[in-house]
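Appendix B: complex inputs.
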Amino acid sequence: MSFWNAEIVAVGSELLTPFRVDTNSLYLTEQLNTLGIAVVGKQVVGDDGERLTEALRAAFLRSRLTVVTGGLGPTTDDLTRECSAAALGVGLQRSAVLVADLEAFFRTRAPTRKMPASNLRQADLVEGAEALANPHGTAPGQWWASADRVLVLLPGPPRELRPMVENEVLPRLRRIVTPGALATRVLMLAERPESEVDGLAAPIYARYPDVESTILTTLPGQIELHFRASGASPAAAQARADTVAEEVAAVFGTSVFSHHGATLEAVVGGLLRERGESVAVAESCTGGLLGGRLTSVPGASQFFRGGLICYHDELKTGWGGVSPATLAAHGAVSEATACELAAGARLGSKADWGVAITGIAGPDGGTPEKPVGLVFIGIAGPEHPPVAVRREFWGERERIRGLSTQAALNRLRLTLAGGL
Ligand code: ATP
Ligand code: MG
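Resulting structure:
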């Protein structure tokens, strides 16, 4: 079975600046995927004729479908028409129908203004192309197809591009693409280094060359494994992606916190909800990040009672319930303090579970005995006397704070799931 692949070329010098993002290609990818067309590459090219022609020629030679966005306006820096014709080795032809359409558009939208002559360029079609109607602007799109290649030119403004994709491009593609489907499966792993995950998973996905496997670190301490497969039907594609995903998941056991791309906080929330229990937090070095993650889950009030940000020692002993003797003997960053804070959060809030984080996020404040990156995570629960785990993270402040919330959520998840 031969599936279609596609490339996207986003045209516009502004897309190469920090001020404008190419969002069209994301939208296009989503739409093409619904037809089972995989996007295998994309390029962002400035308004430079030579580079654009080269980029288009390369895309066109490699890929069955090339979709170009932008550069269809009337100004001299809009070069997509000329460069597409050059890449295909054909000429441009001015369409009398499009000239009439443009004149009519100007008569209704700007009756007092004469249409600038430069606008006529928008009536130029790549030889052999069909115009795609643009009810929201002056630049028509273009559709060019041969036996084994399709080139589509679309306007840059998203409000013009999107309706054109839905009304003109997708119906045409549906008539010619091999019916097929793409399916994805996402495994989420916590607290495993990327190199280790890759080392264990790579030999498995090497045995499934037809399934596209990607490894991503999406948050400190969080790895996603994406498996994408194609098949004759959505069910066949899904079955293929599932086969590889489950084989890989088996290797990582409880490190996999979701088999379907859920966030760690949503998984923890789900476990608490299932049990009809609640959690409260006491955070020192993460300053509310853990509470922030838990409350980002819709419906968090069903399982999250609240939290305490206890930076100052007086808050750890006051609200946090840590005994001054513990603090004096072991310090704020210690196993004993983490345990008492977890217990304090739990009792003080009447939650079933208490989770505490105390540590040194850096860059200052480390000592030889307690270096930057040293973090204790405390957990206390019903029939679960307070325990704390010690972590020594490395890296800059935000990474250490992120790893701390990840470790805290993951400890709670494993405890709730009975894995600890
Ligand atoms: P116009 O007739 O408006 O000139 P055009 O087809 O020439 O249309 P561009 O000039 O390339 O399109 O882009 C017009 C505007 O559309 C840009 O300023 C930008 O706001 C938006 N735009 C262009 N390309 C993209 C893209 N890839 N993703 C998101 N927005 C885009
Ligand atoms: Mg333009």
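The mean pLDDT is 95.
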